[in-house]
Amino acid sequence: DSKASGNRYATYRLLFETPNSAKLGLKIPRMLTAYQLWINGEQIASAGVVGKSRDEMSPQYLPQVALFSSQQGENEIVIQVSNFNHRSGGIHESIVLGSEKQILDMRYKKIAYEFLLFGSLMIMGLYHIILFCFRKANLSPLYFGLFCLFLAIRTLLVGERMLIYLFPSFSWEIAHKLQTLTFYLGVPMIVTFFRVVFPDHFHQRTVRIIQVIASLFAALVLLTPLR
């Protein structure tokens, strides 16, 4: 069933009115899994390649900002979306319409926050791994450092998805697998860290079960197609 599997293509259309011509913007989230967007008949944004079959389309997540000048009176937004690569498809997050300044401020604040978070996690992760290199008898800095690095990588693959923004041709499937793996590997890593630091409060069997389950999920991600 195409509806249940998410395999479908669709066109969305929205009309809105402005009293005068104005400089506006759209904050466009990721769409599953490729789209093209027009304002008043002019294409101003796209991600991936839209198609009517899996062979015709190419998926990509690319949240972005599109700026345009509205015309007085009625304006039209048209979006074509197609998906044959993910279990669900379509527009899952709201598109934000506002003034050029509002949209750019929103974009810049999110980018600044994500880069700050990425830099902080990378510094903490590398610091603890270097600390482990000098004190290899203590495994807790290694586990915590790897956990921080997993989170740092994940930060570039969610939200504004800065990795895709910097490298637009980066493989959608690899990016999606990396995003999923950072979660499946991060959970057992932080649990193991707590086990080493607080051995009396974390039962070894419980930690082992979490590690086995996470390993199975990680193997599933690595060895099977993303769908």
What is the helical fraction, as a range of percent? 40-55%
Uncertain runs: none
**Averaged pLDDT, please?**
93
Distance between the termini: 15 Å
Backbone structural class? alpha+beta
Outline:
elongated
Secondary-structure element sequence?
HEEEEEEEHHHHH
The main sheet orders its strands as 1-6-3-4
The percent range for strand residues is 15-25%
Largest sheet: 4 strands, antiparallel
Number of helices: 6
List keywords for this structure.
about 230 residues; alpha+beta; four-stranded antiparallel beta sheet; three-stranded antiparallel beta sheet; about 20% strand; elongated
How does this model look, in words?
The chain has helices spanning 2-5, 100-134, 140-155, 162-166, 172-197, 204-223, and strands at 8-18, 23-28, 34-39, 42-47, 64-69, 73-83, 96-99. The protein is α+β, with helices and mostly antiparallel strands and 227 residues long. The strands form 2 sheets. A 4-stranded antiparallel beta sheet has the order 1-6-3-4, with no helix packed on it. It starts with a helix and ends with a helix. The mean pLDDT is 93.
